[in-house]
Model the fold of this input.
Amino acid sequence: MKFVRKTPIIVLFLLVSLIVFSVQYTFFDWSLFKQELIIELTSPEGTYTINAYVYNGGATVNYSVLGELVF
Done:
């Protein structure tokens, strides 16, 4: 009887964990898009750095450029 009560809680926990991981991986993990570094530029004072990367999304998507500002 206890197993029947715990099963929906375990399934719900796994589902929520999968959703949280998917959101984290999709929206906050930029390393997926950093494939090839084009250029790295530093500001004259040396406080900021701009990194430009080329991203190849695959056969059906054009190349895109990702700019990253590093403090």
